[in-house]
Write a structure and sequence with these properties.
The protein is an alpha+beta fold and 308 residues long. It has 2 domains: 188 residues, Roll (C8orf32 fold); 70 residues, Beta Barrel (OB fold (Dihydrolipoamide Acetyltransferase, E2P)), CATH 2.40.50.340. Helices cover 22% and strands 26% of the residues.
């Protein structure tokens, strides 16, 4: 299996990020509908299991003795079914986990694996263009930044295409259990779009993450702004490599097209080569309307015609 190692001292081809910021809610409990990515043991608390949900960059927890919820989680992962998670907003401990859709995936359905050759992202020819793109989107710095990074990234990527005809890429950073346990790090992934800029024969990949950055950042700088304790990260081409890296530190980086919304889309049975109407509507549900629009209806071009 081939891996590319990334260190803070190297010139990076692709790199990763994680966010260690306080996470808080203003209400007593919350319910999240999401696909599940994995159930992992917790070294921090042996009495709990770690639940990785596609639509929660924050790690959730399940009491190991909650056998019914554990069985439901395993079935949901095996079947690719969505679940409803009810959890405490302070401890992130799941109190209830139920299947929303029990229909198994069709094993006869054709499976495509996304690869760089199937998607042609835009390449800019100067940094002024890049800065203009960065300045054109709503940074969402006024919202709770501890959640919905995937929705902000999707809004930015969609807006770059709609308003500027720029096809960006996404970079998903998956933090291994070893890294999370070693550094008491309670996030398991982060995602943001990036755009390639080619000048004088050199191509740089620059992240657009204005919720956290005041300007576009070269990927290496962006990574170690957030993942200061990660000495190396491994570039992967599949989620199987993330699971294989569970006992190692650092993180695993997977790149994808602008159409990929959460880590659930990185599974080979969930190829994304177009904008999902469900994903875009989810963005509208999770985020306030972006400036300068007074409401989402005013931003009529955000949804493709086939979603109307």
């Amino acid at each position: 299996m081939f891996y590319t190692l990334i260190s803070r001292f190297q010139v990076l081809v692709l790199v990763s990020v994680g966010i260690a910021v306080p996470f808080s809610w203003s209400f007593e409990s919350t319910t999240l509908n999401s696909h599940l990515f994995a159930v992992e043991e917790s070294a921090q608390n042996p009495d709990h299991l770690e639940i990785l949900a596609a639509e929660s960059p924050r790690v959730l927890y399940l009491a190991a003795e909650n056998s019914e919820a554990l069985a439901t989680a395993k079935v949901a992962i095996q079947m690719g079914s969505e679940v409803a998670l009810e959890f405490d907003p302070n401890s992130f401990l799941i109190s209830k986990l139920t299947l929303i859709n029990e229909k198994p995936q069709d094993p006869k359905a054709p499976v495509k694996k996304w690869g760089p050759s199937s998607y042609a992202p835009s390449v800019l020819n100067n940094f002024i263009q890049l800065q203009n793109l960065f300045d054109s989107v709503d940074p969402y710095r006024d919202v709770d930044l501890s959640d919905h990074c995937f929705s902000r990234a999707h809004y930015w990527a969609r807006t770059l295409e709609v308003d500027h005809q720029v096809k960006s890429m996404k970079v998903f950073v998956l933090f291994t259990p070893q890294y999370r346990n070693e550094h008491n790090f309670n996030w398991w992934y982060h995602v943001a779009p990036y755009v390639s800029v080619q000048t004088s024969g050199e191509t740089q990949r620059i992240v657009i993450d204005p919720s956290y950055e005041q300007a576009p950042k070269e990927i290496r700088d962006w990574v170690f702004h957030f993942a200061a304790k990660a000495d190396t990260c491994r570039i992967a081409t599949s989620l199987a490599q993330y699971h294989a890296e569970a006992a190692q530190g650092g993180c695993v980086v997977i790149t994808a097209s602008m159409y990929h919304y959460t880590p659930q889309d990185l599974r080979p049975e969930n190829p994304k080569d177009y904008w999902s109407c469900e994903d875009l509507r989810d963005v509208k549900d999770n985020l306030r309307s972006p400036a300068p629009y007074s409401d989402w209806k005013s931003y009529g071009s955000f949804l493709p015609d086939y979603c109307l």
